[in-house]
Amino acid sequence: GFSYDPDVRSLQAALLTRVMGRVRDIRREGSAALDLAYVAAGRLDAFYEAPLAPWDMAAGRLLVVQAGGIVKPLRLPGIPGEGVIAGRAEVVETVESSIRGWHAPEASQPPRQ
């Protein structure tokens, strides 16, 4: 998912470019709760997003866990707040390894005069 804050959204897009080459497809329904429900139902293999508000993930987290999946906290450099990675254990590990080591790009500096 993408933040309403343009600076955070730019960082999320930068991370997405790293993940895109390591996964088969990216889908976004527009609701973290719905995406987590789709993971629980087997319609999606995994879900990650940060930041998320507690109400965005509370019910979805329960659905994933009850369906036998795992939900792990996710903190991303440069992005305030916490999110989650959810899915089957082996898929969550794949997503984590795609994200691991990512650092927020440095803000562009104006040219020196």
Describe the overall structure.
- The protein has helices at residues 6-20, 32-41, 54-66, 89-99; strands spanning 46-49, 70-76, 79-87.
- It is of the alpha+beta class.
- It has a three-stranded antiparallel sheet with strand order 1-3-2, sandwiched between helices.
- A hairpin with a 2-residue loop joins strand 2 and strand 3.
- Helix 2 (32-41) runs parallel beside helix 3.
- It is globular and about 40 Å long.
- The termini are far apart.
- Mean pLDDT is 85; it is low at 108-113.
Give a quick set of tags describing it.
113 residues, three-stranded antiparallel β-sheet, 3 strands, 43% helix, disordered C terminus
